[in-house]
Amino acid sequence: MPTDSSQIASFIAKFDPAKAKLIRACRSAMRKRLPSANELVYDNYNFFVIGYSASERASDCVVSLAAAANGVGLSFYYGATLPDPDGILLGSGTQNRFVRLPSAATLAEPAVEKLIRAALAQAKTPMPSTGRGRTIVKSISAKQRPRRAVQR
């Protein structure tokens, strides 16, 4: 039985080397930012997702890293209700909003940090104030979109 970390490494290895490096850097930055959060990992049809949650329930996810062949984003599960005075949130759905992450440094930008703080403040289940969250592989889809950009 593969370990969670070996499974995650294999999920990330499906991406182009530059995207894989970006995913690892963003994950490391989020782990430092939210050390007590559980990482809920999904290798879905459309995206490779790492959700940061106070519990093992997806409904408690506050933010997620979502990666596809075309890039990585920071997704806010209840982003439509977040204050966004800097106008950086993308998306038009009734609930979710996201920010593109061209580099892990984007996560430390003041406007992104404000959004993360606001999302944590409005979370129904607060993040534990101490401790270390677990990493849990929640699902793996048999069919997936290509994780590497199509060369033309």
> Count of DSSP helices?
3
Give start-end ranges of low-pLDDT stretches. Answer: none
Rg over CA atoms, rounded to whole Å, is 15 Å
Gross morphology is globular
- Overall domain count: 1
Structural class, by secondary structure, is alpha+beta
Number of strands: 6
Summarize the biggest pleated sheet: 6 strands, mixed
Order of helices and strands: HHEEEEEHE
Question: Span from first to last CA?
Answer: 38 Å
Strand content: 15-25%
Mean pLDDT: 87
Topology:
Layout: H1 4-12, H2 17-33, E1 38-43, E2 48-53, E3 61-68, E4 71-76, E5 97-100, H3 110-122, E6 135-140
Parallel strand pairs: 1-6
Antiparallel strand pairs: 1-2, 2-3, 3-4, 4-5
Question: What's the quick description here?
Answer:
With 152 residues, the protein is an alpha+beta fold. It is built from 3 helices and 6 strands; from the N terminus they run H-H-E-E-E-E-E-H-E.
Report what the structure shows.
With 152 residues, this protein is of the alpha+beta class. The protein has one domain (4-140). The protein contains 3 helices and 6 strands; from the N terminus they run ααβββββαβ. It has a 6-stranded mixed β-sheet with strand order 5-4-3-2-1-6.
